[in-house]
Design a protein that fits this description.
This protein is of the alpha+beta class and 132 residues long. It is built from three helices and eight strands. Strand 7 and strand 8 form a beta hairpin. The relative contact order is 0.22.
Length: 132
């Protein structure tokens, strides 16, 4: 099995990657609401009523992202009865970062053994071959 791991835990570097100055990540994430509208067959999510929030979680070694409404929202139609309060966070993504210690735990818990690794100079991005 070939596995790619992101081991970069530099808060500023990770934060900037998911909250880029050009807003590419935000536009990509927000397109998920448009996609949900298509799946649901109506305009349930008005993009101007929602915002993207991305943050670094040091405790868990991950970037996490959320949708948050700018106003209280009470849905109708297929989502009737669902209410979301202004500022409430709805999880979209957890992007874990696996340094050497974390990857050893990952392999052990998955019952895998690392057999080869190719990494950049810092060792914070790598491809690994694992065996069961």
């Amino acid at each position: 099995m070939l596995v790619g791991l992101d081991g970069c835990k530099d808060r500023d570097k990770v934060y900037t990657a998911y909250n880029d100055p050009r807003g590419l990540t935000e536009r990509f994430i927000m397109s998920g609401l448009s996609n949900a509208n298509g799946i649901l067959g109506g305009t349930y999510f008005k993009l101007d009523e929602w915002e993207y929030t991305g943050e670094w979680n040091t405790e868990h070694g991950r970037h996490q992202a959320f949708y948050s409404p700018k106003i209280d929202i009470s849905f109708q139609g297929k989502l009737k009865g669902v209410c979301v309060k202004k500022g409430e966070k709805i999880n979209i993504e957890y992007s874990y970062k696996f340094d050497d210690k974390d990857s050893r735990v990952l392999w052990r818990d998955a019952g895998l053994t690392e057999s080869a690794q190719w990494a950049n100079e810092k060792g914070d991005y790598c491809l690994l071959i694992t065996l069961s």
